[in-house]
Amino acid sequence: WKRDEFRNCNQTPFCKRARTRAPHSLDAPLSLVAGSLAVSPEGSLTAELSHPSRPRPLLLRLSALPPHALRLQIDEDYSANTPPSRRFHVPNVLLPDVDSRALHLSKPKTVGGASTVALSSDLDVVVKHDPFELTVRRAGSGDPVLSFNSHGLFDFEPLQESKPEGDTWEEQFRSHTDTRPRGPQSITFDVSFYGADFVYGLPEHGSTSLALRPTRGPGVEESEPYRLFNLDVFEYLHDSPFGLYGSIPFMIAHGASASSGFFWLNAAEMQIDVLAPGWDSAALMENGRIDTLWMAEAGVVDAFFFVGSEPKDVIKQYISVTGTPSMPQQFAVAYHQCRWNYRDEEDVAGVDAGFDEHDIPYDVLWLDIEHTDGKRYFTWDRSTFPDPEEMQRKIADKGRKMVTIVDPHMKRDSGYHIHEEATAKGYYVKDASGKDYDGWCWPGSSSYPDMLNPEIRDWWADKFSYQNYKGSTPTLYIWNDMNEPSVFNGPEVTMPRDALHNGDVEHRELHNAYGYYFHMATSDGLLKRGEGKDRPFVLSRAFFAGSQRYGAVWTGDNTADWDHLKSSIPMVLTLGLTGMTFSGADVGGFFGNPEPDLLVRWYQVGAFYPFFRGHAHHDTKRREPWLFGERRTALMREAIHMRYSLLPYYYSLFQEASVTGVPVMRPLWLEFPDDKETYNNGEAFMVGPSILAQGIYEEGQKSVSVYLPGTELWYDLRNGSPYKGSVSHKLQVSEDSIPSFQRSGTIVPRKDRFRRSSTQMVNDPYTLVIALNSSGSAEGELYVDDGKTYDYQQGAFIHRRFVFADNKLTSINIAPDSLGKKVYSTECVIERIIVLGLSSGAKKAIIEPGNQEVEIDLGPISLRSGSKSVAPTVRRPNVRVVDDWTIRIA
Amino acid sequence: MRVLAFLLLLWISAAATASPPPLETLGIPPQDEAYYRGGVIKCRDGSGKFTRDQLNDDFCDCPDGTDEPGTSACPEAKFYCKNAGHSPITIFSSRVNDGICDCCDGSDEYGSNGTCKNTCWEAGKAAREKLKKKVATYKSGVVIRNQEVEKAKLAIAKDEAELTKLKGEEKILQGLVDKLKEQKRLIEKAEEEERLIKEKEEKRIKEEAEKQAAEENKAPDASQEADSQDTNEKAQEDESKVVEHHDGDITDHDNHSPEGEASVEVPDIKAGTGHDEPPVETSAVPTEEQDHTSVNSEGLSKAELGRLVASRWTGENVDDVGKSDKKGHEDELDLPEPAEEAFEDEHDIPEPVEENYAGYHSEIEDDRHKFEDEELSNVSDDEYVDDHEEPDVSYKSDDDRKGDDHSDLTASGQASWLDKIQQTVQNVLQKFNFFRTPVDLSEAAHVRKEYDDASSKLSKIQSRITSLTDKLKQDFGKEKEFYYFYDQCFEGKEGKYVYKVCPYKKASQVEGHSSTNLGRWDKFEESCRMMHFSNGDKCWNGPDRSLKVRLRCGLSNELNGVDEPSRCEYVAVLSTPAMCVEEKLKELQQKLDAASSDLSGHDEL
Nearest Cβ partner of A175 from B298, B542, B543? Predict the structure, then answer.
């Protein structure tokens, strides 16, 4: 990592200015003009914010979005004294119906310089006029939940009509000059979260901590705010507040009494301070309040307050404005094999065969940049890939897919059709002087399509048609890399801030969303290619709020060391909390050669990531899972097999995420919001509601302490041994797997037959693993569809809830029948039901309807040579998953 | 007959796909059928037992898969397919009924109707043809190999005889040389004494003369001294020329830097853009950016900065970033290049500077190359050529020299030269009279000459002994079948590169003038089935280059299939008769016989 190549807050004038300001120290704070307060025809509250030394007021709009979200918008008034340009509102991020969903607010009650508006029966907002301050409260108790500008740090630098005499707007960083032709326009404010023990979110940063550590105030040594600025950082640090590839300006606060969230829709560079108690020298009066300071270089205030009150509610509220994660295809949830680079068709065939020889399943083989003709995307290096269609067909014959990389930097080569077209149509981002911006990336001199423009996104999407993308087939999917955008010779390895986009928008205003629009256009391209029937799969490195709608992300170029393995969990959990549930880290670590033991541990952890892909830098040694001796091959095979057996569970969790936004991989506190022990546990994680796992993050570790939350028992996933809840267990570390447990009271669906890829598992029978709680009951869900198309949106899916109570297991249909006429059916049966915690020595079970009797035997938890038979197992009930049935333990 | 057999096979396969084979034999190899008889069968891992009707009932009762050889129910089970007409195989039971044909008889897909055709006939035929060819290759190969083994035995015996003989000669010659040395020492001592006496005498005369004409004699002395100093200086100057030239480069480089800075200080974003390739002069001085700490972007054009940053990920040389800070350049010059080591033993020709260049060039990769060539045309031509030819030339001449030595020493009149030398020395020694004063100059010269001759002969013999000992120390395989690899190099072309593998010595990758050392001989691995070369040129951000050459039976020595599965770790395949082993031939022959007899059995049906 090259610290001095990236700006810190002190080298960033707007940040330095805002950060050195003391609370309530502005000479003339913004105040609400009492007489301007009104309810607009659409039902929002509007008002003017004025400032004695400024000619134009700011316009404020406050709207309530059910359920339990408040939106605050503040922009300049452009009606008179129009400044030469307008501030940028980030388009196409919020769901299109957000505006129309707003409630019609009642008229505010104003008493003593403060106006109160009811948002719902249990919430209201208090707007203090001078200085302007906003507080969201529980209506009954009057307890605050969130507040804005309670510390008087709200500042809004208005656009100036011209540069004042003697002023310099230019900024220098290293050899780069930012012309800043529009001058200062930054925005700063403070937000307080009440009843919070910790705050979370704000990806992407390397971190070993799940909670965001304070960045300023007592006890903070190296004070640097969390930076949100999408950057391609070479060999990033595993623990640092500096910005990485993506930015989601969304923070969640959680404490024993409340959960809340705050989201600022702004794509300019942002810096956020988490202020340690006592930062403002105020006495530590208020218990459980966390103050934060938000600073952005440009844009407007478009902020959302989410009131919870449960943590999952906060996520749902955020998802209700930015959209639900897209439902992936089945294959995408399975294992991916990548390397920079699988060099040629022979190499591809060899790796593919290697998996089969070693009985290791995988679903997708990836090709990095070297597959192209001179890094011209959408082309093939025909000397190494003479017949890409045939290659894909051979892979597809085994039910597998391929992915090729398509980056946004277009080689400036007059022989390259995309460059010619983009140049002719004026589709590239322009430099400050108006010429096509010319930067340097893999192909050398490169230009970047202006993804802000919907017309250009359409044009880009068309490039993915089979006709345009020669050598592509229906089993080829796409990987978007370098879309921060990465520019090797640009300031901080990205595009100059004064570069210009469609509509005279400066790059500084949308920087953090460039990759998002690129991802969107690519995803749309695959959707178009498949005539709207094939769910796209696009992996992106850069992301922004809303990226969850377009595909998966990964944590970029990590390093093959134990620290990076450890930080991958907080990083992936944080992405999950902020909507990006489909994420993972490169298994093995991108840079460097992992020690074989690290690689094995990484597979064991990575097999739980929502996005599970092995990847490696081209300087590293080959590391396909069979290259490290028989024992390690067996261990990695076992880890991958574990993932494949859990695919029905994972797929069901992805479906849940696609409806609610609640992530597949969850911090413990999302499932146990009252258990304080879990709040800052970044080593263990939940997969859905039922499975808890904790990685082994140290070389040669002999024992590990694992905290199991809740009051109920937990069962070891491998051997069924029970462990008490609410206890930190000191466990012997096993080489076979990382500590992983099933929570009692849950039912996990599995498929225990191992195939080459998930495609061949479609008709395989299920295993249900039931872990009974202390009252002898449990429940779980199974979602199944065709794994590929959008037919599920018209009802073509199976959604069952399995409920075990009173010695009876019942399968209940929970699919709503209002969706459409399409039907998904399958002959799949349940071949085995394992019941953990069953006290009776029952020997048989009766299936209803039909009154058919089946045996119960003691069986193993997993089908591995040497596994002990430990749990009562219903043998071959063979009930179909599509049917309603009941199985009674007799 | 053939047609009938074919039809029969078709019928069998049709029958196979129409109804699944009986459960009690499904997926079970013939030798195991006995295990599955009986009413209750044990799981092989001892974890439990199962009843006969649980055999292949599509539910896994034994975690090790004993009860489900014919279904996919147990992850650890294996499925046996008979593959009549071809060879039987055992597959993972996860392949059973997965919609993909794994057994040529289609028996693994009994659950899906007729997805898999029986292709064993064709596959078997092709396999038999292949096997036949292989057997033929082995047959001829074994003959060649045996010849080579015989030759090797003779040659080794010859080498050993020569070595013994040389060692004897060395002893004798050493004795002579010692004697001559002693003689020489005595002569020199006598001469020295004589000289001292003479000097004394001269001094005395001189002193006397000085007294008479003190002033006149000094001048000529002084001028003589000055003369000799002059020559000394000149010699030093010559020696330092190379270094100086190099200094010149640095100065040159210094001169460039300000220019670079100047071009960036102009706030013109377009500077240096719009070109696919950088202007040639920017890379006048090749540098190897080993020091990747932080980019001093001040001195770089936009393109150079782009390349430099890109190079972190790619690990490629940033040769194009010619104007990178001077410090980096100097560092680079100080760094001993990996190539240096390689050339050291190849005799002392390369100068430090050249090594730098050579090492540098060996690091060049693909498309960077064209910049290189342009760059280097700026460097004086002969130097460029020198740099590049040196390693190879020296390598070859090394061999040649050995050859010379060899012919010299093993010339037919071998015995006579030693006798002659002995004789001559004897004569010289006897003839010399120490008690004669002054020393007889012609005889002293004679002794010296004899000493020089004899010791040069001795060192030749010794070097020959060393090289023979080195050679005989090598592992030539069980039957010395690799003996004849010793003085051979094998070449194979792959893309734009020529790969040169010299067993017991080194391997290299050659592209035009530049040669990259892929490793020095390390050892045989896998009981002589693989040659390993290691510690080749260092890869930036990667390992030292290495090469593993897999050996296969073939009628001639052919190198191919060169590949680089991991960065800078090369693999190749060498076909050679040395690998055509008789036992393997027998094995193959048996296999072929078995395959053919199976077939004839079918023919008889």
Answer: B298
